[in-house]
Protein 1
Amino acid sequence: MDALYKMDALYELRIVDGPVAAACWILASCGTAALCWVILGGAPFRPARLVVLTAVSLGAVALTATIHWLLVECASVFPENLPGEVLAASGFGLLGLLLGATALARIGPRRGAWGQRGLAVASAASTALLSGQMVNAYFGLSPTLGDLVGRTSAEVRLLERELRRSAAPAVPLAAWVPPAKGLPHAGELRTADIPGTASGFRARPAYIYLPPAYFADTRPELPVLLLMSGQPGNPSDWLTGGRLKAKLDRFAAEHAGVAPVGVVVDPLGSPSANTLCMDTKLGAAESYLVHDVVPWIKESLSVAKGPEHWASAGFSFGGTCAVQLLAKHPELVHSALGFAAEEEPALAKDRSKTIGMAFDGDAAAFDAQVPAHHFATRRLEGSLLFLAVGSKDHDFVGQARVLGDQARTAGAAVEMVFVQGEGHSWEMIAKAWGHGIRLLAERWGIG
């Protein structure tokens, strides 16, 4: 039991801040100093070695910029420039590796230098460790060691038969009375495969949050929060970086055990895929959501079926997808929470590349699917679009303003939050979440 307790404590260890972050900084600082010492050597001082050290440092900057340019402009791995903080952290990791290689070259093949070689390798590794820690801390994707190694999602059980809609009676939420014997203190997570029967889309398993009220003998027909992750990403990102269970447990504790059923679904298919959340030559992601996911949830879970009790939500790619669902399918969702949503989905920074890769160059076909077209051609009175973006996430700030104006033109109620001091990260979501979920609660009649 003591061993299990110690392992649980280890898995809960925070790695984005606190002692672990401090240790990474100390090790990397010492490692960088050690590498510089090896490269510069002892007395007498030789200016040529300082020139080498300066060249290595400038080379790290140039290499970081080149790799970033190749990933964004050429390979289109990312449709937007990476945040400056991420580039700086990545550049520091590259600097450590270049310093390590230079130090090993400086040491050479001479005998008796294994200790120095080991020091150089360990020092370079310490800079790479800090680089990874800094990138993870910026995005906030894996706050704890358990998140990093996959324990958080691995412990989620399959959805049991007794939790299906058919296993218990249900009444409309407005008519539901909390049982006298009380409810569980917290909700529970489950996982389930939602097959792409109609669309043919192959998705990864979904994660489902069931609030305490769901475990009553007579269940309320609860509202639904349909969630999507960023790209590259996994549905489990909403469990780790998004801390979905903690967020909805807190909401349920404030509302007599009632909270939305949160369903994290996968319109990507794999971490590296980008389907644009549309039906294209890249896959029928939109049909999967509309014709497979939504019917499965309504048939399988004790939830309300009217669109006024459904909201889509997501981060980055997922936020863009959430906005698209509201714009294109108000018969399914009446509200959307778009965290760092794009004005329109993208495979590359160059719009023409997106059209070429997904629509064989047919710009009209792409234009007919983006939110701007649907906001301009239909009325969305009674709908809500909540947009949140970090104040330092400059590209997405501008795109949020455009989306907000488009949705207002269609008659939707629009709320926007610019989270001061935050960038493109899960911490931004943590700070904006409360505002968004309160707006949904008002619409769902959860007092």
Protein 2
Amino acid sequence: MKKILVTGGAGFIGSCVVRQFISETSFSVVNVDKLTYSGNLESLKGVSGNPRYCFEQVDICDSEAVRAVFGRHNPDCVMHLAAESHVDRSISGPSEFIQTNIMGTYTLLEAARDYWNALPEDRKAQFRFHHISTDEVYGSLEESGFFTEETAYQPNSPYSASKAASDHLVRAWHHTYGLPVVTTNCSNNYGPYHFPEKLIPLIILNAVNGKPLPVYGKGDNIRDWLFVEDHARALRLVLEKGQVGETYNIGGRNEKTNLEVVHAICGILDELVPTPAPHASLVTFIKDRPGHDYRYAIDASKIEKELGWLPQESFDSGIRKTVQWYLDNQDWVAHVTSGEYRNWIAAHYEKGHS
């Protein structure tokens, strides 16, 4: 039975990975999370009492604390998802992104390398360090073309630059020190438990509450959308079957303009929560984001051909499930939007609890 150390396991994608491991496998999970503003243990209420799950409130930049976690739990693999991830926040305050995404990754790599070097040979051969990254490291596409694993890096925001740096560190630790790593770069995720600063949950919640639906520029920026459950399944597959030293791009083959995404949400809400005026009447175009990349699109043929992964959700099915989840989980939404989830965390966990 494997034990997986997941960093950022209280975040949007990380919590989905943890929930899947606990509900669909016999693996144990150690969730390491600093619990910044978007870390939410309420997203893990369904697994928090499971004997195969434990939580460690640790900052990945804290070398001593990170090494202590390795010593206490003796994991077989690391899945590194902890990161500051919101582009807008990186523009207004890049320092945290540099610290967490670059220095945090460095600290984790060094702790993992020392731990791996001390393992018995059989466990050493099985150990993996799986680094989870983003397609934004590749920069921006025009109307045609796709990001592949060979696409040159050209990050355009402080966020994507910090993630590109972390990708390079992981690659260097493999080639220099032999650390057995795999890396994945994914397209835009969406789905349940998404913190409402991001486009899709923000639009859902604003529309339900009759608030303006902010859309950058003309809404013609294009993203490839990936349902978070599909992404988590892909991550688990790469961890178990991916080739050491390889990179795998994970995408949903669901290119949509931001305005198309907003209109799709509005159409579903018109059906499920009808109002006198259509929800799309709330769309409000705002000044575009500085350096806003025009288009992202991933070629996921490598993971499809080599590992047999395919997304189970289309955008239409995934976005309907997502809208319905937010309508059905108003307690979670209320706690997040009010900040009440922090009180829940304080009531259920003390620092260092496991």
Protein 3
Amino acid sequence: MGPCAAIRRAHDTARITLLTTGPYVEFAQASGYFDEIWTHRRPRWWQVGAWLALKKQLDGGRFYRVYDLQTSDRSSFYYRLLRRPKPEWSGIAAGCALPHANPRRDFMHTIERQREQLKMAGIDDVPLPHFDWIESGTDGFGLPERFVMLVPGGSAGRPGKRWSVTGFVALAERLLARDLVPVLLGAADEADRNAQIAAACPGAVNLTGKTSILDIARLARRAAGAVGNDNGPMHLIAAAGSPSLVLYSHESDPALCAQRGPDVEILRREFLDTLTVDEVEAAMRLR
């Protein structure tokens, strides 16, 4: 969102379109950075009709410049789809007009990498993400004044990035003893894990599968703090201003992907199953 704010400021009279997927639409609309938002389903390689439809949509946009902030093989392929003459393209697509020409870009934190990419495209001032445009106190979940967000999930294919269910249960119980209500967040595919925690700690509020991205940001602006594994929601929560503790194992490197925000603590162990609840409670950030 920092680069998006910078792009909006640098092109204040332009019509800006965001290409994204469905879950991000409400959040992007609320930001005010975009005039139009397109969604698509990320077609598989063999879905020729879907690729042709995407090409037609991209060509029809008549874009004079594109900022590829994902810089994946997929997003770079979109450059190849565009008809000639191609728009100015900022990214890593072969032959693009505004390449991020740093051979060590993969060893940079995402925020620094995107800042450098935009600087090479002529945009020097890229702020950290800020969410002053999000209304606070309108989450609609009826939560008490003092609560702490717990985000126990993470990539299902990388279980080593997840602290144990028993660890989160013990932490939730300690929060309740301090008159802090634990609020569990997660996507639908994390429902079983979070349900185990909620069942073992009945005082917790389980919002798994009930929150949009915008909801999570609103909650973060109200929360006393947040504790979670290295996952997507913790990036948003930290950036939105909640005091945040993020748990890292050997499977991810904070130097490349640490959450950023005004009050973030990283607690790292080679294996998260060696991490005790005492250590987590002692490292927690609260306001």
Protein 4
Amino acid sequence: MTSTAKSSRSRTRHTGAAAVALTAAAALLAGCSSSDDTSDNPLAGEKAEAGTVVVGSNNFAESTLLADIYGEALKAKGLKVTYKHNIGSRETTYGLMKNGSVTVLPEYNGSLLAYLDPEAGQKSAEAVNEAVEAKLDKKLTLLESSPAENKDSVSVNAETAKKHGLTAESTLADLKDIAPELVIGGSPEFQTRQQGLKGLESVYGLKFKSFKALDAGGPLTQSALTKNTVQAADVFTTDPTIIKEKFVVLKDPENLFGYANVTPLVHKEGLPQEGVDALNAVSAKLDTETLLDLDAQVQLDKKDPLDVAKEWLESAGLS
């Protein structure tokens, strides 16, 4: 597979374009969380106050939720925590991590590797983490990755799943005989990427009836799949629409779509061992199904992410 394609996609999905950083302050005014002890200016470059752990997030809902989970888990261990939510793109957050302005940031291991080394391969989650550590600024480190992943997937709508007997245990290989009947949708780039139609054919032998250019897992893709304009589409694995519309995510046993495990990125000097242990405990409990449910509570049910974070930590025995 080609990591260059992953780089372009993951940097768009998880961090936005570099220009997004310029509007981060405006995004903060809208507010994605009611987290207390939040910095007034997420782009401020001052170093964290001694004894205070600053938890940051990028400017999308799942990152805010994960930051609240991390922060409240640290508070439960008696650490003083402040938040810098909705900072912006990885180009901005990585700089703030290096200079110590942010202590902890929820990251996605494969996406971070694609940012640090666009040509790097991704053969396993462990290998990805090792490669990230080799490229990270020496003041930074990754903690343990969670099983939870927010990554590309081929998902089918409920009508197609029922017609062809596809379930949550079905894999991409199960589409081989029926793909010629299906229209698949995704971003225009999905048509030419190895982590797209090219890889689906070379790795799984899938040849679809046709391709419909939509967007990168956004509202156009969601609508087309819901309306059966396309029967299969590139959908992110923690997209709450999966629950709402009963899409079926097909397993990817050959890891065509790489790795995107939720992983804490940490400034080494700013987090004591009890904080390391607390975040590793969070990673051990957080899987994709759980994260999808938590995202749905925030994005579909409109619950406050801080409340969702606290409730989950209590239910998981982490508060």
